[in-house]
Amino acid sequence: MSKKYERRVSELVRTYLATLIERRMNDPRVAGITVTDVEVTADTRYAKVFYSLIGDEQARQQAARGLESAAGWLRRELGMHLRTKHTPELIFEYDPSLEHGARMSQLLDELKAKEIAVKPGDETGSAAPNREVGGQP
Predict the structure, then answer these.
(1) Residue 137 lies inside a defined structural domain of this protein
(2) What is the pTM of this model?
(3) Mean pLDDT of the chain
(4) Are 38 and 50 in contact (CB under 8 A)?
(5) Contact between 15 and 37 (Cβ < 8 Å)
(6) Fewer Cβ in 10 A, N or C end of the chain?
(7) Pair 54, 26: CB distance under 8 Å
(8) How many domains does the chain have?
(9) What is the pLDDT at residue 133?
(10) Is there a domain that residue 112 lies in?
(11) CATH code, domain carrying 37
């Protein structure tokens, strides 16, 4: 199979799974899960589903158990929508990218707050005095 076909099937699987998990699953363990990416093998027999969840380790373990228990139902529902020779077996893998992004955003916000706190008496918010070109005031 071509790479273009693999990408197209991966995107279809990602879209359908995200919709199924968000709208049709009633399991509270999978609440808040975001499907970040799907990699389908060339023969479409397996699909590695990357998901993300902001929460602690216990929430991640609960989500993993919820996804594993629903894998058969998700595969059956997926099979009704895909027009491929094989419905891929779903393999779920946690993706920490959203969590890392949230942490980086938090760190940047903290740095910005510290930077503002370091500039007492400067109402304009700029650290250097305003000077004309050539260093003349």
Answers:
(1) no
(2) 0.72
(3) 85
(4) yes
(5) no
(6) C
(7) no
(8) 1
(9) 53
(10) yes
(11) 3.30.300.20
**Strands of the sheet with 89-94, listed across from one edge:** 34-40, 46-52, 89-94
Domain that holds residue 22: 3-118
Q: Which long-range contacts (CB under 8 A, 24 or more apart) does 30-34 make?
A: 30/63, 30/66, 30/67, 30/70, 32/59, 32/63, 33/63, 33/67, 34/98
The maximal CA–CA distance of the chain, rounded, in angstroms, is: 75
Please, what is the angle between helix 57-81 and helix 3-19, to 10°?
110
**CB 11, CB 59: distance < 8 Å:** no
- The token pair at 53 is 């969840």
Residue keyed to tokens 């005031």: 137
* Among the listed residues 46, 29, 48, 30, the one whose alpha carbon sits nearest the alpha carbon of residue 38: 48
Query: What sections of the chain are H helices per DSSP?
Result: 3-19, 57-81, 97-118
- For residue 104, being part of any structural domain is answered with yes
Is there a domain that residue 128 lies in?
no
43-56 mean pLDDT: 90
